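# nightly structure sweep
# worker-07 picked up a monomer target from the shared queue
# config: single-sequence mode, recycle default, output format = structure tokens
# input follows
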Amino acid sequence: MWNFIRFFIVWVSENLSIPFWTVGHVHLSLSDYHISEALLASVAMHLIVGVGFFLSYRDHLADKKKEYKRNSETLKFYMDPTDEEEN
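# output follows
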């Protein structure tokens, strides 16, 4: 269940961040809400996008580390120590 919630948060943050920041804030500023409700809604939208951004960034770093490790292992496999020039 945690993986689904994590996926959902990342998906919302990547796909709905611009609507949250533009349409959401215009709607909150033009509607007749109490200031506390508007602030709470704004903070909640920012938290969802921020948490999703952080989780997506962490996934990106993990993918880069795996790619670097895979590339370095491939290079080690193809490098032959006897091919090096002797000084």
